[in-house]
């Protein structure tokens, strides 16, 4: 019997540098373009990007259940529309094609030259056309920190928080891929509670360290996805920076929640790491007390051990790592988020994005936002060049990374990075 794609002993004939996020056990999916050609589905091994349209055109991906046309689309949705069994078969097929002992591509110079490209010569795009984006609020530490700062330390968590995964509907139109800069947003704030509001660029621009998952087609309207079924409806995960303007947020959010403080940009990493690739890194999540209602209960391990970190690099300066957290700290799991989202019959569609909410850990250096790291600006962070930060300045580049590691196997996401440009003036 051939080894499964997650077997740590697998090796590829494509060179994989030590410490790479993309060994043959990963096989992520993304949308890439090169030489100004239209974007196409791709995967990556080491520092090599593979054009899947060429492999499909040669018939090498037949038998996975995915139509060849899906490999000619500029987003992964057409491919994801075939569902989990097909996506799994595709990953298994690619794993076989790139194993060191498989000569099919390895010994075909012409095909290899056509299909393989150096990662640094490729432009990556938003991998999925996201229809609906939902943002959860699933880190107990984050919710506790925010509740302590903005409301009441004695009652930091609102009464519903331990009973359901709190979330809100976000906006998909302003999702940007890693590498695309954003302008500082402008908006209404009320710095002096005894004076009228003012208008101008946000003075409290913040990142939120999150992980998002992308869905397969799901079920029809009216039906629900159980926690046990959730994994069958999750294609893969991306790193996610849910940019936030804290001063705009604190003035506008009552009573319906965040609006313009959150919808001006959200950055996502460009390689979707499949849930299948992450299976070896399942781990126990935090104990849940009180026991959730029946529809939110789960069996087995529903958390994933993904180490996360955030860097800030000032204009022309070196990066400083300011946060180290982990996806496993989340109180509410992806399975619970999806079950809760659909329990009223709300349908999810192929390519919906569900983000975790800011992933803060238990220690002050693991908080996933500047709001918490600097405790609302009262404890500035020192960068390696001596500068201080309370929030994010113009010219700063914020980079998030994530990876899993176990038994000598490392599976990573690469990075999600964005530079902050000054606010655009009114024309
Ligand atoms: Ca968020």
Can you walk me through this structure?
The chain is an alpha+beta fold. It folds into two domains: 30-125, Roll (SH3 type barrels); 133-421, Fumarylacetoacetase-like, C-terminal domain (Fumarylacetoacetate hydrolase, domain 2, Alpha-Beta Complex), CATH 3.90.850.10. Helix content is 17%, strand content 26%. It has helices spanning 52-57, 77-80, 83-97, 103-106, 109-115, 140-150, 246-252, 275-278, 334-342, 370-373, and strands at 30-33, 40-45, 48-51, 116-118, 123-124, 133-136, 167-169, 175-177, 182-183, 186-189, 198-201, 205-206, 209-215, 234-241, 244-245, 266-268, 273-274, 282-283, 303-304, 307-313, 320-326, 353-355, 381-382, 388-389, 397-406, 409-421. Strands 6, 7, 8, 13, 14, 16, 17 and 22 form an eight-stranded mixed sheet that branches. Strands 4-3-2-1-5 form a five-stranded antiparallel sheet. The protein has a five-stranded mixed sheet with strand order 9-26-25-20-21, with no helix packed on it. Bound molecules: calcium ion. Calcium ion (CA) is lined by residues 135, 208, 210, 242, 357-358. Calcium ion (CA) binds at residues 135, 208, 210, 242, 357-358.
Q: For the record, what is the CATH homologous superfamily label of the largest domain? A: Fumarylacetoacetase-like, C-terminal domain
Number of strands: 26
Sketch the major β-sheet: 8 strands, mixed
Mean pLDDT: 97
What's the CATH first level of the largest domain? Alpha Beta
Secondary structure: helix percent: 10-25%
Query: Which fold name fills CATH's third level, the topology of the largest domain?
Result: Fumarylacetoacetate hydrolase, domain 2
- Cα Rg: 22 Å
Derived from helix and strand composition plus strand pairing, the structural class reads: alpha+beta
Oligomer: single chain
The set of bound ligands, ions and cofactors reads:
calcium ion
Unreliable runs, pLDDT <50, ≥5 residues? none
Strand proportion: 25-35%
- Please give the alpha-carbon distance between the first and last residues: 66 Å
Total discrete domains: 2
**CATH architectural group of the largest domain:** Alpha-Beta Complex
Helix count from the secondary structure assignment = 10
